[in-house]
Amino acid sequence: MGYMKQNDVMALSAEEAIAANLDTAVLLESAASRPTKRKSSGSGSGGPRSKNTAERVIIASMICDLFAVGAAMAAGFHLRFHTFLSEYGHASGISFQDYYGYVAIGALSMILTLTYRQFYRGTVLLRYRKVARQILEASLLWVVGFLSILLILKFEPPVSRLYVVIAGATICLTLLLSRWVLNLLVHRSCIVASLRQRVLMVGWNEEAERLAAAFGTDKADAYELVGCVRPSGKEFAKSPSDRRLLLGAQEQIADIIKLRGIDIVMVADMDSGQGEIVGLANLCEKMMIQFKVIPSYFQILVSGLRLDTISGIPILGVSSLPLDRTVNTVVKRAVDILGSIVGLLFSIPLITIFGAIVYAESPGPILYRQRRMGRNGHEFFIYKIRSMKLNAEASGKVGWTTKDDPRRLRIGAFMRKFNIDEVPQFWNVLMGEMSLVGPRPERPELIRNFKDEIPHYNARHNVKPGITGWAQVRGFRGDTDLGERIKCDLWYLENWNLLLDFHIMLLTFIKRDNAA
Q1: In this predicted model, what pLDDT tens digit does every residue of 183-238 receive, in sequence order?
Q2: How far is CA 95 from CA 78, 87, 105, 480, in A?
Q3: Which domains does the chain have, with CATH numbers?
Q4: Distance between CA atoms of residues 372 and 422, nearest Å
Q5: What pTM does this model have?
Q6: How far apart are CA 25 and CA 17, in angstroms?
Q7: What is the per-residue DSSP string for 310-332?
Q8: What gap in Å lies between CA 107 and CA 22, rounded to an integer?
Q9: Are 70 and 191 in contact (CB under 8 A)?
């Protein structure tokens, strides 16, 4: 298991950083504390707010989604039975009245699926990218589940399987469009203030500083840092750069929560005694607000941090990461096999054309192999179309390619810019040495001491290296900041899902920053 500081995630974009710190269990939430309705009184900067507005927006969005799904299923019926698609299967003699029940059950089951996916939460409404991902996942789950139930129960008339698939597609598109419109309306109105979570820090340190910076640049605008209080009988581990954030001492926290309309109390300073932290958690429970802890003392892959219970006793520790699960590994490998076969077929003409150009400019082998470090430290040979002059490392000096590298061929610059030199690596993927997406493999002689010099470096070797990766599409390739590259690789390991892989593949074709 690799290791990573909690605040390392902040090197990513603000939205990704906040999602990693608050929406994916990076923070430990008190099991006794749950967000519920509350009223606050008093006055102060930012002011107390009623939760009723946020609840009304969520309920209204749920009702709108119900009607939108029903309309999408009706549109799906029209596409299936009143267009050219009616020529397929047994589609004659079926009226919309026959499908009333299916539409009603389907719409309700889709809303239940979205609810199960925790879709109807205030902060989720402000994050369209997360909303879109959840809609796609819920639509796929709905198609499989709805069709399975209908076929098992054998309703009359029998449901058209093609109709369910078409309905799933129309539901997905309708919800994506309606939620995009809702996202625009919410962000351009005062409603966003009711959905935004107001945060109060107890203590202040480097992690709190980074989180505050991420709050300020978050495009979703889902969290607002109201200020911080000094821990009981102590000074701050690090003074806030903005003195306006100082609201007083921890002894005044109850009044501050009421006056400022706080939603989340977040403990940044873990040096306080157990009694003080438990007392703070109990206070948050009484005032019906969320209590969270930044686990800055955990030097780990933080998305694997889970709270479990053993014989009723809470135990905090590292659980499995997404690619530790067999089903995810099998799915990723299946995509790799299919993608590598297609990639090899398309790469044959590219290798032929660019191989001929390479040979014309620099006679010699057109393919180049190089030893790289793979999963669990296993070494293998990677294949590329040669982009350098022959004997480019004849001096014995080994290093990364730099911008305007004099060893590079003229055609090599073009190939590296568009990643054409990498296409022979589809063979490495087919052989199981690499994946389509993953941390890029490095040369053993360049990284021999990195595991001792760079914190958490070896964690990236828990998975197969990839032809492309999250670090590469973010511009960290070649002779760039290795520390930032490692952070990106570890973020990928923590947040892997199949849609992320497809997203990275797409970005590979349009992002060419620092390609040398």
Answers
A1: 888 777 777 777 778 899 988 888 888 888 888 777 766 788 888 998 887 778 78
A2: 10, 15, 17, 63
A3: 6-26+196-319 (3.40.50.720), 53-187 (no CATH), 324-510 (no CATH)
A4: 14
A5: 0.55
A6: 12
A7: ETTEEEEEE---GGGSHHHHHHH
A8: 31
A9: no
